[in-house]
Amino acid sequence: MSAPILSPRFENALRYAARLHARQKRKGSQVPYIAHLLSVCALVLEDGGDEDQAIAALLHDAAEDQGGEERLAEIHAIFGEPVAQIVRACSDTLQSPKPPWRERKTAYIEHLATAPPEVHRVSLADKVHNARSILRDLRLYGAQTWEKFKGGRDGTLWYYRSLLHVFRQSCSGFLVDELERLLTEIERLALEESR
Length: 195
Known about the structure:
Elements: H1 8-20, H2 34-46, H3 51-59, H4 62-65, H5 68-79, H6 81-89, H7 101-112, H8 117-141, H9 152-170, H10 174-193
């Protein structure tokens, strides 16, 4: 019998993420937050990510949304330095209260431009799943979708177009192509709704 592809560390991360985000829902919906984390993790694994990257995908919002530096220290203690580094790099802030939206997003884009490949993979998977959710919501709810985003329609489109530019410069593969395809369709729908 061959060894499992993912170790008990991964199972532990699944349980940890499920407990940590048990009461959290996706913004403006009734969807349990764990659905997003599982989707991001699946995309990371499908893109060839290793176990540390898969664990970081499950935990990529843990420090930002569930406890800041203290949570990040706990992740480091349980899952190790490589996972903690990716989680930190995928967080646009660990401050509470959070700085203004545009300031945070601009700093994240600048930081991402020099981030290592493992951070790009997890961040890109996160953005692909978010873009899928935006597109689905635009098809279901139309322009009111933008109301749940602090950047509104124009800010959100700017942010995703800027991220795509960074990813195009540093990554290749199906996730970058998928983000571009999704963003093109989101922009098309946004243009239609503004007519």
